Amino acid sequence: MEEVRYEVMTLAEAAPTAKEVMHGVCKLLHERMLKYNWVGFYMLEPGTKPPVLVLESFVGAMTPHTRIPLNQGICGAAASSGKTIVVDDVSKDSRYLACSLETKSEIVVPIFVKNQVAGELDIDSHFSAAFGTDDQNLVQYCAEVVGKRLEKS
Fold first, then answer.
1. Domain range for residue 138?
2. CATH number reported for the structural domain that contains residue 102 in this entry
3. Whole-number Å distance between alpha carbons of 108 and 42
4. How many domains does one find in the chain?
5. Which of 99-138 are b and which e, b meaning 16 or more Cβ less than 10 Å from the residue's Cβ?
6. What is the mean pLDDT of residues 105-109?
């Protein structure tokens, strides 16, 4: 995982825009982390009332959930609370918005810009309990890198 972390850092330094960093992170995590079957960024849409998360860059199957209100789903819960949420078995979490019958577990990590939630990094896996401590640390690092890049934009 240290190698992937280094690649994320290198990517963030080389990419000309935050959007390209997000796309690169999606692609990298999807390709390098075998249990990461869907990787995407949802960002808060500025000025919407009530606030809505909008799908930005992603790699994986198409999803019907391109706009998620903050009061819905695991994504909405993570953005509302500002805390990472790891779900080992999505079938046992009533907040889960079904995207794919193959999804078994999910991790959602908020992205902070100037100490405010600006979006999140969402990853689904076809494996139950796919996200351990090392995965959580890696995904939180990726979210932090994107947040810092967004602050510069």
1. 2-152
2. 3.30.450.40
3. 10
4. 1
5. bbeebbbbbbbbbbbeeebbbbbbbbbeeeebbeeebeeb
6. 98
